[in-house]
Design a protein that fits this description.
By secondary structure, this protein is of the alpha/beta class. It is built from twelve helices and seven strands. It has a domain of 206 residues: 3-Layer(aba) Sandwich (Rossmann fold). The protein has a seven-stranded parallel sheet, sandwiched between helices.
Length: 304
């Protein structure tokens, strides 16, 4: 129900009662925490016993936001938070090379140069994730019902790159941030109205995949592995519909994860290898998604 329709309801809204409660005369009774309306009492909502309610709120708030913006479907982009854009990576490499040239026997500078070269190599992932965000967003957001909207974990690195690609073409994109012991601010390319913050990892991961048509997984660490294998497990067990799970850079993934060894050991079936597809460019990834949905109406008409 819209706010402007509430005046026609016989009972006062929660918003109206909250305003009345705020204007209550100050007495010993009204100052007591017990007198606060339960839904305006932050201390009450943060109690351990209220965890089920907080879980429900974290599920509901982003869902309402996505509905209000007509987000029909999404494409999830996972990957390392540590990647940086090519220009910045090149600047770091230039500094490392200069310092190593001046002190060629310094082991710390040698290590720094090796690290800088790796950062440059990985910066290519940032570039491809950004390009993928551009391609998908141009195809999917040409009508009121927004399809194939880019959604990420909302942080830096690959997440930033994908959100940035959508931003480049004037499209919406979603960011699902998580509160962490160390600071993680949302990247500046997320659509502000679609930038959400979560306390519970489980609810965040649920939102990342609830509307997903595909998962594009760039090289990453523990977090990326966690998200990838949870999604593979959901698809394998039939708890999620089959969808493209695209692993970017075959050389990286086959070196990091020996999928064939899992088959050899009998812990997955040979057919389970078909759940993943390796891609090496943004265009490859989008073409794989288009092929998967070629005979459905789930993609935009001009995106097939």
């Amino acid at each position: 129900m819209r706010h402007d329709e509430r005046e026609h309801v016989s009972l006062p809204s929660a918003r109206e009662d909250a305003a009345r409660a705020a204007d209550a005369a100050e007495t010993a009774q009204t100052r007591s925490p017990s007198f606060r309306l339960a839904f305006t009492d932050t201390e009450f909502l943060l109690r351990e016993e209220l965890r089920p309610v907080r879980l429900q709120l974290e599920l509901l708030k982003p869902e309402m936001g996505l509905q209000e913006h007509n987000i029909e479907s999404t494409i999830v982009v996972y990957g390392s938070a540590r990647n940086i854009e090519p220009e910045q990576a090149g600047e770091l490499l230039a500094v490392a090379e200069a310092q190593a040239a001046e002190n060629p026997d310094d082991p710390k500078l040698k290590d720094a140069l090796t690290t800088a070269r790796r950062i440059v190599r990985h910066a290519g992932y940032y570039e491809q994730a950004r390009r993928f965000g551009q391609i998908v967003s141009e195809a999917g957001q040409k009508s009121e019902k927004r399809r194939c909207v880019i959604v990420t974990g909302g942080g830096p690195g690959i997440m930033e790159a994908a959100n940035r690609g959508a931003h480049d073409v004037g499209a919406l994109s979603i960011g699902h941030n998580i509160t962490l012991p160390h600071e993680q601010a949302p990247n500046p390319y997320i659509t502000p109205e679609l930038c959400f913050q979560f306390h519970y990892f489980a609810i965040r991961k649920m939102h990342l995949t609830m509307r997903a048509l595909a998962l594009v997984v760039f090289p990453g660490g523990y977090g990326t592995m966690d998200e990838l294998f949870e999604c593979l497990c959901l698809i394998q067990t039939g708890k999620a519909r089959p969808m493209p799970v695209l692993l970017f850079d075959r050389a990286y993934w086959t070196r990091i994860v020996n999928f064939e060894a899992l088959v050899d050991e009998g812990v997955i079936a040979a057919a389970d290898l078909d759940l993943i597809t390796f891609v090496d460019s943004a265009e490859d990834a989008w073409n794989a998604i288009r092929t998967h949905y070629a005979y459905t109406d789930l993609l935009p008409a001009d995106g097939c």
